[in-house]
Amino acid sequence: MSDQTIATTTLDGVLKIERPTFSDDRGFFREPVRIKELGKLGISFNVAQMNHAKSIQKTLRGIHSAPWNKLIYVPNGAVQAVIVDLRIQSHTFGRHESFLLGTDNLSSIFIPKGFGNSYLALSESADYVYLTDQEWEPNKETGIVWNDTDLNIDWIIKEPKLSEKDDKNQTLREAFPDKFS
What we know:
By secondary structure, the chain is mainly beta. Helices cover about 10% and strands about 40% of the residues.
């Protein structure tokens, strides 16, 4: 029997994974996820790459969509992670869900391919670690602008620090005009 709890979210396919933390006077130990448990749910996730981004407070990264599955974890700091369904055939297309992750909530989030992934650093600095089941390749990711009015995301910080690329991403309507005609 596993101590892992896997919960569904409002977005079809996005899962919140919780595991126990074992603490003592030296610190703690935890396993953020057991991949085998995802397999029991019919999810094939063979790790191909691990990424680690460190961001300073007010940095917003994303909204990035890629043709690979991701498993995110924030071991240090605090972020507002926002996941957006960008799968054209999905009944939850264009909807998003926000999660507060980090030192005070060490949950992991499984994000299926085709979803938009973004996060906003709320603490002085935050470490955002994620596994993917494919290696990164140029020109495979797309982006939606962070402040898209159709998404209407309630970002905790209203004036974030952005990369030039993220600030110039398309709107949902520009990226998916057929969904709005």
